[in-house]
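Below is one such protein, fold included:
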Amino acid sequence: MPIGPLASRMLQEEARALMTRLDRIKPFALLEAMVPAAGLFPNAQTAIERTMLEGRRELRRLIRGFLSWLERSKSGATAEQAQRRLSILRLRFHAVLNEFDMFSDVITQRSEQDNGTWLSGLDIVAADALTLSGRFYELPPIVCYLQRGPGAAIRRARTRLPGGRSNPAAIIKVPRERMVGSGIASSLIHEAGHQAAALLNLVPSLRAVLQGLQRDSDPNRDLWAIWERWISEIVADFWSVARVGITSTLGLIGVVSLPRAFVFRTDLNDPHPTPWLRVKLSAAIGQALYPHPQWARIAALWEELYPRQGLDPERLALFQRLEAHMPTFVALLASHRPASLGGRTLAKALEISERTPTELARLFSAWSQAPAGMYRARPTLVFAVLGQARADGRLSPEDESVLIGKLLTFWALKTVLATSYDCALMSASLRQSGPAVRQPQSHSLTIH
């Protein structure tokens, strides 16, 4: 039965109502109030706005297409067919709204006093954690935000969004309870490590090597299989230890210090290593990259906090084998040469030579006498130095919190002023070039 007048009018008005609600979704630059120092990196802001603009344009096209189809099909389509099309259109509308809400939740925090500016500072720390001296990949836009819970998480750049489009920026969730101390670097840089691993294709590269070691003749083939299952999280931990040293391991202890049942829980299908083993592995990575007695002390402290006595014999035997195998496994990680690094080992690409415990302690002494040097250093190096000072008992948690708050604010302010200065120079250059220089057209960034 052809669609009736009432059904046709109702469905048409529903589609037009979607269009009116769509028109109320404005660019974040017109919605969110924040101090300039709390703003996103310009490339992140532009990438997010462009993605949302594409979503709105797609929806307008779909709504207009539905209205056009409805007008043409009055004598042939049924009400059921029209309703089915509208239902699909509404689902698409909700998918775009989900993307908007996701970014809105992230950006709205930038209006919080102190936290907004500190988040901008964390964007800079994350970008530094991803920056390698070789041009191995294009650095993606990065945005950090706070969330409840002890752990961090990342929605990597170039992964699929709820609406089906590619995520324009790396969105890193950091635990609110870690604001603000050196432990936040452990969580933040671990998540940055996940993004780096994806950009460098590290996990598939390492999996291929680990699978090759699972031969019938190798007595440790079952251990290589376990490391392979956990490799995605281990690579991120490796990246974090390489960047901030013992700061990473101490921060990890803060995250996984849970009731004993959780710390010793073993699920070989979980990509996260057993927490007890994960801390031991973090110390083993530190010992391989930065040999020093402190790693044995940290491992012994962890054993004191969570003694393995009382474990069932099967699990105890597995833990002993995995712990004994850690140096061999970590050596494989450090010497891995993925094609994406052009022949460099993973350890060499991460430039670990300047971050030994002795050098970090020396820098803390130098910066205590001349603090200006700290403000000129790379943010990840600063976190490595401060975390080392905490581990050595030379920096109190109270002083650390105040200092890191000031540093995050400084990095955010420095970046926004540098960006403003660069923009002013570009504008002046264009003005001085005279009429021969044409201003770029703005149609492609039309705001709807």
